[in-house]
Amino acid sequence: MPNIESAIKRVRTSEAANAKNSSQMSAMRTTVKKFEEAAAAGSDNLNDLYKEASRAIDMVESKGLIHKNKANRDKARLAKKLAK
């Protein structure tokens, strides 16, 4: 454990940021998984699930948690599954 006050605060803030970032990444993965499972099952609400997944990917990308190219690649793969 750090002894310096600023280092102690830095540990607290980095833990809070890590928790927030982890939850946002998890939520993004969950929405993508829901879309992929619905696409495999041939569900009716694919457009709504695609919009949710695309929005989640955009939000994670805007926070800097994933790279812009990865976000575009993931959305393109989802759109390809939607078109099938």
Structure description:
The protein contains 3 helices and no strands. The protein is mainly α and 84 residues long. The longest helix has 37 residues, at 5-41. The model has no long low-confidence stretch (mean pLDDT 96). The protein has helices spanning 5-41, 46-62, 68-83. α2 (46-62) runs antiparallel to α3. The radius of gyration is 17 Å and the shape is elongated.
CA(first)-CA(last) distance: 53 Å
CATH domain fold name of the domain at 26-83 = Methane Monooxygenase Hydroxylase, Chain G, domain 1
The number of strands is: 0
The protein's oligomeric status is single chain
Q: Mean of the pLDDT scores?
A: 96
| Contiguous helical run count | 3
CATH class of the domain at 26-83, please?
Mainly Alpha
Q: Please tell me how large the radius of gyration is.
A: 17 Å
Q: What structural class results from the helix and strand content?
A: mainly alpha
CATH evolutionary superfamily of the domain at 26-83: Ribosomal protein S20
H and E order? HHH
GO biological process, one term: translation
Family: Belongs to the bacterial ribosomal protein bS20 family.
GO molecular function, one term: small ribosomal subunit rRNA binding
Function: Binds directly to 16S ribosomal RNA.
SSE diagram, text form:
Elements: H1 5-41, H2 46-62, H3 68-83
Short description:
This protein is an all-alpha fold and 84 residues long. It has helices at residues 5-41, 46-62, 68-83. The mean pLDDT is 96.
